[in-house]
Design a protein that fits this description.
CATH architecture: Orthogonal Bundle
Number of domains: 1
Mean pLDDT: 88
Number of helices: 4
Largest sheet: 2 strands, antiparallel
Strand order of the largest sheet: 1-2
Distance between the termini: 39 Å
Order of helices and strands: HHEHEH
CATH class: Mainly Alpha
CATH superfamily: SWIB/MDM2 domain
Length: 91
């Protein structure tokens, strides 16, 4: 459907799209480039799946490996805790 009101396209001002710089600990997993939160989450899930870190008994839990342990500060986290833990490593 065409824009017939002659209004400029609305720009996204969402905080989710603001590029954020990962801490050195998080950069070891996702890379050092500043990227939006949404991309951080995607990259973390790619890493989790690539290294088969989802718990086999309960797929909602993520087991920490040597790179994720400093981010999680424990051996296992639920997928619902993930965003909060990642936020502490973004600026």
């Amino acid at each position: 459907m065409a824009n017939t009101d002659n209004k400029p396209a609305r720009k996204s001002t969402s905080g989710f799209m603001k590029p954020l710089t990962p801490s050195p600990t998080l950069a070891a997993v996702i890379g050092p480039d500043a990227i939006p939160r949404t991309e951080v989450t995607k990259k973390i899930w790619e890493y989790i799946k690539k290294h088969d870190l989802q718990d086999s008994a309960n797929r909602r839990n993520i087991n920490a490996d040597d790179k994720l342990r400093p981010i999680f500060n424990k051996e296992q986290v639920s997928m619902f805790e993930l965003t909060k833990l990642l936020s502490a490593h973004l600026s």
